[in-house]
Amino acid sequence: xxxxxxxxxxxxxxxxxxxxxxxxxxxxxxxxxxxxxxxxxxxxxxxxxxxxxxxxxxxxxxxxxxxxxxxxxxxxxxxxxxxxxxxxxxxxxxxxxxxxxxxxxxxxxxxxxxxxxxxxxxxxxxxxxxxxxxxxxxxxxxxxxxxxxxxxxxxxxxxxxxxxxxxxxxxxxxxxxxxxxxxxxxxxxxxxxxxxxxxxxxxxxxxxxxxxxxxxxxxxxxxxxxxxxxxxxxxxxxxxxxxxxxxxxxxxxxxxxxxxxxxxxxxxxxxxxxxxxxxxxxxxxxxxxxxxxxxxxxxxxxxxxxxxxxxxxxxxxxxxxxxxxxxxxxxxxxxxxxxxxxxxxxxxxxxxxxxxxxxxxxxxxxxxxxxxxxxxxxxxxxxxxxxxxxxxxxxxxxxxxxxxxxxxxxxxxxxxxxxxxxxxxxxxxxxxxxxxxxxxxxxxxxxxxxxxxxxxxxxxxxxxxxxxxxxxxxxxxxxxxxxxxxxxxxxxxxxxx
Length: 497
Hints:
By secondary structure, the protein is an all-alpha fold. It has helices at 2-20, 27-32, 39-48, 53-66, 72-95, 101-108, 111-143, 150-199, 202-211, 223-239, 244-251, 256-273, 275-287, 289-298, 303-311, 314-348, 357-381, 386-393, 395-400, 402-410, 416-437, 448-456, 461-479.
């Protein structure tokens, strides 16, 4: 019955996505839904930015192993990213009337900067989208009781997401996400109520978690612990700001006010609602501790699905897996679209002179298809956990793209020399340290002490890359000539009624 339900749900989602595709008439409709989305849709899309497989399966598993201390990057860092983007970055970026963040880098700096940072953004999505596709595979594997492998389930789920995103772009993402968010909220609240009742009440679950120290989240006064805590927070909080999916959802708003407050409220909502899957997962330790220990030995990410399958009614199972599919698909579609748009708009477009809007639209759709296939291949071949894929996804943008974006918006002395040094030092330092951690020997440098420091948490490659990137921008900013926004961006857009 559950498999038939899943098949029906996927079919309905596909139909909704294809119906929304009828609103797409040009590239602007495809990329930012014509900048015509109301508050409720923008809020739903921002909320869904990270409320995906990582939140329901990934961080709930991490919470059982490490408590709040393991969740500094997500949901704390992720929600702070959205709030910071809404309050600080949304207004100036929305007023520029751009299609992509790559457009900003071209306008503020140069075409070369646009190409390099656009590629960084595209590469960062490999792990993030891959995490969603892997989660789809896990769902099919659990529902079929192992008859459908995780790899085959990944291919099936990814095919549906790719198909409706391919045709409808942001309109399909917006409409399907709005419907899916309703199912997510209602479904997970119901499952939390059922799980809490089975565990003896909310108070019992919370008291047990508190007694076991699961709510501790601040670092100790140890320097290594503080550095590790800061690195975990900063990776998502700042590394996710120069991301196309966040920008694209904000830029789809009907007016500036919606762009700012839809993003901010979406971030706040994400932080608080992320506690729901944590509560459900921890309830499992009371309801069936033997099952939890067995799942930990196999894959902690399976605890929530196994709890529902083994201890809840068929109705609860339908509601849970409907909500879980909604969570994954709403995130997967938006994060699949973002790198595809960046690649077609900021890389392919400049290599084909005189491209028409219609050609750009179809090239973007083709890019969605190709990137979707590549991500699916990656998801079926990696052994990385969902939480691990997400944590690793934003290191490249933290080291290479955050400083050029922030300085370009808010520092008048930011210039081409500064951004060149910023990118070179940020990415160069990060890559060098990551290679050191992998034990790559260049024949002239002894890596052993560096590797020990990285493993001990004294050196966090992406955090050191951020510091190097900042230093490069400051040095170049004072040595080079200031540059201003080129005349290729739109005029400030007035608020719509």
